[in-house]
Amino acid sequence: MAAERHASVTWTGDLLNGSGTIDEVGSGAFGPLDVSWAARSEEASGGKTSPEELIAAAHAACFSMSLSSGLAKAGTPPERLGTSAVVTFVPGTGITKIALTARGSVPGVDADGFLAAAEQAKKNCPVSQALSAVPEITLDAALDA
Amino acid sequence: MPRVVRQAAVAWEGSLSRGTGTATATSSGTFELPIDLPSRISDKPGKTSPEELLAAAHAGCYSTSLAGEIARAGGTVERLDVSCTITLDEVEGKGHLIVSSELDVQARAEGIDRAGLELVARKADEGCTFSALIRASASVSVRAELAS
Fold first, then answer.
1. Residue A46's pLDDT band (boundaries 50, 70, 90)?
2. Closest to A98 measured CA to CA, from A38, A139, A129, A66
3. Which of A11, B11, B55, B109 could join A20 in a cystine, given CB atoms 3.0 to 4.6 angstroms apart?
4. How many domains does the structure of chain A reveal?
């Protein structure tokens, strides 16, 4: 079964001075969200999101769901997972790196088991596969202290 | 230009089928969105999903790229409406994969005719970093029309 997901953006003006809005998404879960080139390419994002931040959210969400699935299949569902994705974007070059971090509270799993499950999730989640052309994707996974 | 770093975080509780999570835009603080599995795979999503976030990312990436290309071609953008549809499908032997991203563009711009728009729409696709990434494993298509 195929699942289609949809989003619409409106842009006005040129690249450097113009701005855009993610008007709506199929689920209705968010929007409108403002985007601009400055928010994308400068150090401080000024309260606007960017494609790279949305990709970070997509990857962290996909990775979390895949990790929870793998842990549950092994008979040890997580109580809680905290993950993050940091996307590095070099204007003119593209996305050069994604750094995934995972912390988990998972009864019945040791550090090695958690790391192995996280490696599988990193390798197999659909967003990881879609972004496999990114030069470097790293993973730092550990159980909550 | 400087390296730019953007971060988002997810907190997830429970198993995949019954658990729920929250995706937060750490860099900008512009969103904090609930996620769950039914919203990812059902026909009537009530929450967002990784694929919907990617659709928003691709539409955003492409619209900035197209705005740049139209200006480079000597045109003036009044308004671009870009929508993106991402399809997740089960591929035999490979599990669930993102198989396609379709961009639909309505452009209102001075100084660009239909043939010119087709050219800049293609250049914008070549210049959009997300198009280049996803094309390694999925199909990317662009349909661009001048808005009447």
1. low
2. A139
3. A11
4. 2
Q: Answer yes or no: do A69 and A11 share one domain.
A: no
Q: Which residue of B has its CA nearest to A75?
A: B15
Give the distance from residue A113's alpha carbon to the nearest chain B alpha carbon, in angstroms.
Answer: 17
| Residues from chain A contacting residue B14 (CB–CB below 8 Å) | 68, 77-79
Looking at this predicted complex, what is its ipTM?
A: 0.91
B34-63 burial string, b = 16+ CB within 10 Å, else e? ebbbebbeeeebebbbbbbbbbbbbbbbbb
Range of the domain at A138: 51-143
User: Are B7 and A95 in contact (CB < 8 Å)?
Assistant: no
Mean pLDDT estimate for chain A: 90
Which of 2.30.30.100, 2.40.50.100, 3.30.1510.10, 3.30.300.20 is the CATH number of B50-146?
3.30.300.20
Residues 74-93 of A with CB under 8 A from B: 77-92
Do the strands B20-25 and B32-35 form a parallel or antiparallel pair, or are they unpaired? Answer: antiparallel
Average pLDDT of every residue of chain B: 92
Classified as helix, coil or strand, A72 is: helix
Q: Give residue A44's pLDDT.
A: 62
Selecting from A48, A57, A131 the residue whose C-beta is nearest the C-beta of B8 gives A57
pTM score of the predicted model: 0.92
pLDDT in tens, A88-135: 998 888 899 999 999 999 999 999 999 999 999 999 999 999 999 999
